[in-house]
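Please produce the structure of this protein holding protoporphyrin IX containing FE.
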Amino acid sequence: MNTTTPTPTTAGARSHHSRSHLRPPLRKAVLVAHLLSAGAWVGIDVIVAVLVLVGWFGQGSTAGLAYRALGTFAVVPMLVVALVCLATGLLLGLATRWGLVRYWWVLVKLVLTVVLCVLIVVALQPRMPEVVAHGEAVSRSTGTGSTGSRAEVIWLFFPPAVSLTVLGLATGLAVYKPWGRLPRRNR
Ligand code: HEM
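Below is the modeled complex.
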């Protein structure tokens, strides 16, 4: 038996290793930033969900304040952590053996993250002035019995629900790493 011929496993491990362009301490630092940004993104989504619930079920000035805070402060930090998560994910993919289009779990995470970032910019950000205006209307109506039209803001339940579901899915993909590699011709 020729013991000098590398087995597919050792050859694969060697080629994986040679594709890793980040030294271990730097890779770990990028991974820490990746995990912190993903965690912060989940946290901001939870805050958004709480504000949406307080706006919907709260009374008068409390509900108005929740909508104004949501419309004023939520989107920019959310976009920042989303972009940090995307950038560090891209770096980890490009600079480690995982690649960006080598494993299904990385590619699917990439697509999901890009879709969420685009939705934040295209679907969420432009509607924030309308949320602030609704909050001001709700605050003004305190004591008059009118709470503005709730139907105008029912859509606000969807962004945190969709985002938390997708982020949960992405975390599951990162941990379980399912589905193996893409066919070679796609890489
Ligand atoms: C939706 C946002 C994301 C979440 C919640 C997320 C979550 C995670 C988690 C929890 C890990 C740690 C897994 C482990 O060490 O076992 C991880 C690692 C990783 N993520 Fe993400 N991720 C996201 C977006 C992305 C994107 C967009 C990419 C690539 C384009 C990416 C690429 C990677 C890679 C390559 C690793 C492995 C790093 C390593 O072990 O060297 N992630 N991610």
